[in-house]
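Recall from the previous lesson that a structure prediction takes nothing but the amino acid sequence as input. Here we apply that procedure to Lysoplasmalogenase from Photobacterium galatheae. The sequence below is the only information supplied.
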Amino acid sequence: MWVWLAVSFSALLHINAAYRGPQWQFYLFKPLTIVLLLATAFQFGSGDFYQQVIVAGLVCSVVGDIFLMLPKDRFVAGLASFLLAHVVYSFAFWGELAAPIVWWLPALLGGAGIIVYLLLLPSLGRLAIPVAVYVAVILQMTWAAGEYWLTTRTGAGLAAFAGALMFLVSDTLLALDRFRGNFRAATGSIMTTYYLSQSLLVISVLLR
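The prediction returns the following tokens.
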């Protein structure tokens, strides 16, 4: 219980600082929130391959967070870090399949991804290919998490799928804010869904 209060408090401090300051609070609590989740997964997990891979994905996420919050734009480096995190998470999810693949899920996710990408495309410029690759990888990660749940019907699988979906929502909001125009609620919406996604992935470790 206490660890989740600490995670929630840290996340709220970061989001509040994004709007009101101080700057040191913004820089401290963004990565600290994920570090707390990482420590939780590491300490309370079962020690199996799934836990180890999720922990590795959280480490990549911390690196990505640091790149994205630096004063000088490190968007591509942050994109690469989270791309690696999604690849790592995918290994964990695909390793849990317990039945044949459900093919309607990738069709649904792929259709949604194409619509979002086409909406972003006019504003992407030289980032068109990197963003396309990123979209494909995060959709594949979400598909893998969905298959994990659909083929096992476990609480851990449901938490993983919900976390992947939240990650998809968070990254979509981030892309829309960056490439289609800023909106005031962007930071709060992006970071809330992001922290929820990572928390749910950690919960999927704890439920095993």
